[in-house]
Design a protein that fits this description.
mainly alpha; globular; disordered C terminus
């Protein structure tokens, strides 16, 4: 395969959609050069990282995301505005948990793959991944903005739990609509060019540009603006700072940690998306030796994006002081349901009388 045909192939296919040896396809099978050995090492490293994620990060993320959702939804009365956003991100994390094993156990990420999937499955996985990424990024962004509103205007209805639940509904709706607008480009990119209407839309770079702008640039600017406002509020000490109705101070640390971690984990993916759109797809890479490194970084960045599905609930579990109390109340209720808790019922009746 020549370099020219290889670059033409890249214009059509996603680098991380190809089989496990995608990073070595520019070399001959009998090649023993240093670049080829490095290419094979990249494949081995990626396989090991994928298996580590599946054995450690995937079960932890699945358990903690389910726990976060169940504990908060079982204590709806005590839920605060940040809790609603973290539940929203946990649900998106569960969607990523659904996508991750399908991709990581395929030949895309590991040499010891279990299955292969066709273009239809690939497009479905891509849409679910894009929806989850948009929900996570915009939930983090609106959490920052609502936290500023809560700091500046305590007891306001604008950042209430009721309104936040509706906002989260709009986030999912907007993510689905945005993803399906990009879906048109991806679908037309995989079907026959005989359809005139679709052949005009065969531009995967346009879909990647939409995701780059809406999924990363807009949230990054909004979070930066929110942090500037929050820092300005913190410098101005007012009597409202002692208001008992304000959010727990630990929420501020949780907010900073969650925003930083989300952007650290998702930035490499969007940066490689930008490089693919601006540099790789137009064919500006003139040497085949750089392609394996790019492929490797692209897939590692997607693996980091998957990691956000377990990093966020772990942080929430460790930094939210009220989570342990909610979990204990839930366990007591489950225990009482099995044991009928006659003592607690009698004490409650005495208090009522």
């Amino acid at each position: 395969m020549t370099l020219h045909s290889c670059v033409d192939l890249l214009r059509v296919l996603d680098p991380c959609q190809n089989p496990a040896m995608w990073i070595c396809m520019v070399y001959n099978e009998t090649d023993t050069s240093v670049d080829f050995r490095l290419c094979r090492d990249f494949g081995l490293i990626l396989s090991i990282l994928s298996l580590i994620y599946l054995l450690v990060c995937f079960p932890l993320g699945l358990c903690y995301n389910v726990l976060l959702v169940v504990v908060n939804l079982s204590n709806k009365v005590s839920m605060t505005m940040p809790d609603v956003y973290f539940v929203n991100m946990a649900i998106a994390g569960l969607v990523l948990n659904l996508v991750a094993p399908v991709e990581l156990l395929s030949s895309t990420f590991t040499r010891w793959h279990v299955w292969e999937y066709n273009d239809e499955v690939y497009i479905t996985l891509l849409i679910l991944f894009n929806i989850s990424s948009l929900v996570i990024m915009y939930s983090t962004t609106l959490l920052s903005l609502d936290y500023y509103i809560e700091r500046a205007l305590p007891r306001t209805y604008m950042s209430s739990v009721y309104n936040t639940k509706h906002v989260c509904g709009f986030i999912w709706g907007g993510a689905v609509l945005t993803s399906f607008s990009s879906l048109l480009f991806y679908v037309c990119n995989h079907i026959s060019t005989k359809m005139v209407e679709c052949s005009k839309m065969q531009n995967k770079e346009a879909a990647d540009s939409i995701m780059m702008f809406i999924g990363y640039v807009v949230p990054a600017l909004a979070v930066l603006y929110a942090f500037v406002l929050i820092l300005r509020i913190r410098k101005e000490s007012t009597p409202l700072d002692q208001d008992s109705a304000r959010l727990d101070p630990s929420i501020h640390r949780l907010l900073l940690a969650s925003v930083c971690v989300q952007f650290v984990l998702w930035t490499p993916y969007y940066m490689t998306l930008l490089v693919h759109t601006v540099v790789v797809a137009p064919g500006y890479i003139s040497s085949a030796r750089y392609l394996p490194t790019y492929y490797f970084l692209r897939c590692v960045s997607k693996l980091l994006a998957f990691s956000s599905s377990f990093a966020m609930p772990l942080m929430y579990r460790q930094m939210n002081k009220n989570f342990s109390n909610k979990l204990q109340r839930l366990l007591r209720r489950l225990h009482c349901r099995d044991q009928s808790c006659p003592r607690e019922r009698s004490t409650v009746q005495q208090v009522v009388t």
